[in-house]
Write a structure and sequence with these properties.
Strand order of the largest sheet: 1-2
Oligomer: single chain
Distance between the termini: 48 Å
Largest sheet: 2 strands, parallel
Helix content: 55-70%
Order of helices and strands: HHHHHHHHHHHHHHEHEH
Number of strands: 2
Radius of gyration: 24 Å
């Protein structure tokens, strides 16, 4: 009612927030992340009959280094439900379409087609740029079916109808009018619709380039041209669909007043699939020098990745311990009858793999959000953050 129509994502978020312990979410979230990796691998190779270790490590590595706010997308409870979980749903929804594209005799039986209708609703009702990407992918898919005069089976129709129902529910939510009001206000301040959209295009493109989108786009175009021009082969049709979905997930954000870095996850996923899918179709002869030194190169990569992983782990653990220490302090102060509390803020999160990285921590104004929500959560009158020259140290270090 207030800001958007992501009922599916926020159902999961509110369900896990309702539980007293976060361990349940941590376990479920890990399973969903593993499902996402397997689904990306399926969309790259078209099959999961043989799990390819190279693609498993390549996909994890690409997400680790290329997702701009990894912690927000994969560790933060609300962010995970909105982006990781929704990306997993839409990639699951696209599996039968990919299988049908590769094998025209593939189809689902009537009971599974009926269930696929429900999955279509969930996929359409996910997140704005995620659903927009799938919308254009399905549009291209059915246009190609029409042009090639191919038959359409039951699951394709039911899945598409379900998706459109979910998509309409997502974008027609009353809360989306709040976003429209923001855009109208921007238009009034910036001299009209055309100028506003031009600036939005520049800003969205800037976010795309800043978050390695141009890098993945360039690799995809370069490898694709090599296949088409020099190797005289045609790209798999679904490669074009993934490419289109990637662009749609970027420029559908023209209709949003902001493009948060966490919304870039689906962009990274579709362009990673595109690049790896094209690489699968390349005829490559690996030079002997690379084959001879492959073990050493693998060790060097592992050392580099381990260094990044350890740095991220240190930051994540630091934020966790400081947050826990702060919580204990608030509870103790409340038990002593103090209802206007001051705590040290912000908690430093310098690594993009931390869930707090890029998010709001407590401010020095007790009357503003998120301070008001934190005070309400703990059942106190007010809370505010105070700066301190003393460096943050978790409790175990102080001892």
């Amino acid at each position: 009612m207030e800001w958007g129509g992501r009922n599916v994502a926020h159902f999961f978020a509110q369900f896990f927030l309702f539980l007293e312990d976060k361990y349940v979410f941590n376990i479920c979230n890990t399973v969903i992340y593993c499902c996402l990796i397997l689904l990306i691998q399926f969309h790259v190779t078209g099959s999961l009959k043989k799990i390819n270790p190279f693609f498993f490590f390549a996909i994890n590595g690409m997400l680790w280094f290329l997702v701009p706010v990894w912690g927000q997308n994969f560790l933060w409870l609300t962010g995970s439900c909105n982006y990781l979980w929704m990306a997993t749903i839409v990639l699951s929804f696209l599996v039968p379409y990919r299988k049908r594209n590769d094998n025209h005799s593939y189809k689902l039986n009537i009971p599974l087609s009926s269930l696929f209708f429900i999955l279509g609703i969930l996929a359409g009702w996910s997140a704005e740029n995620v659903s927009a990407a799938v919308f254009f992918l399905l549009l291209a898919y059915f246009i190609s079916k029409f042009v090639n005069k191919e038959k359409v089976c039951l699951f394709e129709i039911l899945g598409c109808i379900g998706f459109l129902i979910g998509f309409v529910l997502l974008i027609s939510a009353p809360g989306n009018y709040a976003r429209l009001a923001v855009i109208e206000q921007i238009q009034a301040n910036q001299h009209g619709f055309v100028f506003t959209m031009l600036m939005r295009f520049v800003n969205v493109t800037h976010v795309f380039v800043r978050n390695y989108g141009l890098f993945l786009l360039g690799i995809s175009v370069w490898l694709g041209l090599d296949i088409i021009v020099y190797q005289k082969k045609k790209l798999n049709l679904f490669t074009w669909f993934y490419f289109l979905a990637g662009l749609a997930s970027v420029y559908s954000m023209l209709l949003s007043p902001g493009f948060a870095d966490r919304a870039h996850l689906i962009v990274t996923i579709f362009f990673c699939i595109t690049a790896l899918n094209i690489a699968m179709q390349l005829t490559i002869e690996i030079p002997g020098i690379i084959k001879r030194w492959l073990p050493l190169l693998s060790v060097m990569f592992f050392i580099g990745f381990s260094n990044s992983f350890l740095a991220a782990g240190r930051d994540v653990m630091g934020v966790y311990l400081r947050w826990k220490e702060r919580t204990q302090y608030i509870v103790t102060q409340k038990a002593q009858g103090v209802v206007d509390i001051e705590v040290k803020a912000p908690i430093p999160a310098k690594n993009k793999h931390s869930a707090l990285y890029g998010l709001y921590d407590m401010s020095g104004d007790a009357t503003k959000w998120p301070n008001t929500s934190i005070a309400e959560y703990f059942g106190i009158h007010s809370i505010k953050g105070i700066d301190s020259n003393e460096p943050w140290k978790p409790a175990w270090k102080k001892k």
